[in-house]
Write a structure and sequence with these properties.
Elements: H1 4-16, E1 20-22, H2 23-27, H3 34-44, E2 49-54, H4 63-69, E3 82-87, H5 95-98, H6 112-115, H7 137-145, H8 153-161, H9 198-201, H10 219-227, H11 232-269, H12 279-282, H13 288-294
Antiparallel strand pairs: 1-3, 2-3
Length: 301
């Protein structure tokens, strides 16, 4: 298991640089050898650091190209490649707290609109009914539980923006219903809500060929993000993390489906009245004293 203090520091560095860095750039900020840093990241696992081999790109930064860079699962093309590290966390804002229904739980009690930079009481936070302080006793404990001690508010904002679906633009529920291209959404491409699969952004879509979009980054969505003043780079990171989780979920489902026939076959063999091959050989032998007790003793009446 990776050291919590080291992982917390690496998350802090990543979030200070937009939530995503190349491994060689991350190493320049830590006093660890390349091999040791790689070991820490792998031991922590993809629930903490998503490590992907990608093909470096030249020229101006492009959101769609950044997402596509790791889509193939590696550099792969025979050309030069580099390792990309993305900060991942299961820390979330408490939805019930936003409605004034929760006093303490294992999620952050923090104003969602302030985290998005939209709270009308931003300049006078004492007038907001929700906390603008990440250092309340409840929030400090939650951050410790997630190994995020030491992060300041700006770094925590970056981490949450690329992991917590509640900070994305509102997903269009009408788009998620029906079979048509836009579902039941009558506004179609003029809708000011996100036209994306709601299950995908939650990491729960079980459909291999889903009819709803799994692409958060495209021309229409980029305009929506810019209009709402959201950080495009953070949404790119959200897409990278969500795509990985979706692929991981389907690999797990495929493995489960593949193991089901063999399990059913075993259960059929074990049904009462049907002999199981090798059962006699597999039956444990009685111990020597037990056998001796059952055998008549010679020389006694």
């Amino acid at each position: 298991m990776a050291e919590p203090t080291v992982c917390s520091f690496l998350t802090k560095v990543l979030c200070a640089h937009g939530g995503r860095m190349f491994l060689q750039d991350l190493r320049a900020h830590v006093e660890l050898s390349e091999a040791r840093l790689g070991d820490v990241l792998r031991q922590a696992g993809p629930d903490r650091f998503l490590l992907q081999e990608v093909a470096p790109r030249e020229g101006p930064w492009d959101a769609e190209a950044e997402v596509a860079a790791g889509a193939g699962g590696g550099g792969g093309g025979g050309g030069p490649s580099a390792w990309r590290v993305v900060a991942v966390s299961s820390a979330r804002l408490c939805a019930r707290y936003q409605r004034g229904e929760c006093q303490a739980c294992d999620q952050l009690h923090f104003c969602r609109r302030h985290m998005q930079g939209k709270c009308p009481n931003r300049d006078c936070w004492s007038t907001c009914t929700l906390s603008h302080d990440i250092h309340t006793p409840v929030n400090i404990q939650v951050l410790k539980n997630h190994g995020l001690f030491g992060l300041n508010e700006a770094q925590l904002r970056i981490l949450l923006l690329q992991n917590d679906p509640c900070l994305l633009p509102e997903v269009c529920l009408c788009y998620n219903k029906g079979e048509a291209q836009y579902g039941y959404c009558i506004l179609k491409d003029k809708c000011n809500k996100f036209h994306v699969c709601k299950s995908f952004v939650r990491g729960e879509c079980r459909l291999q060929k889903c009819k709803r979009s799994h692409q958060l980054i495209h021309a229409a969505s980029l305009k929506l993000l810019e209009d709402q003043g959201l950080n495009v780079s953070s949404v790119v990171n959200f897409q990278i993390i969500s795509t990985y989780r979706h692929e991981k979920l389907h690999k797990m489902l495929e493995n489960k489906d593949n193991s089901a026939p063999s399990a059913e076959h075993s259960q059929a063999l074990e049904k009462p009245g049907r002999p199981v091959p090798g059962a006699a050989e597999a039956r444990p032998l009685a111990s020597a004293p037990a056998q001796a007790a059952k055998k008549p003793c010679a020389g006694k009446p």
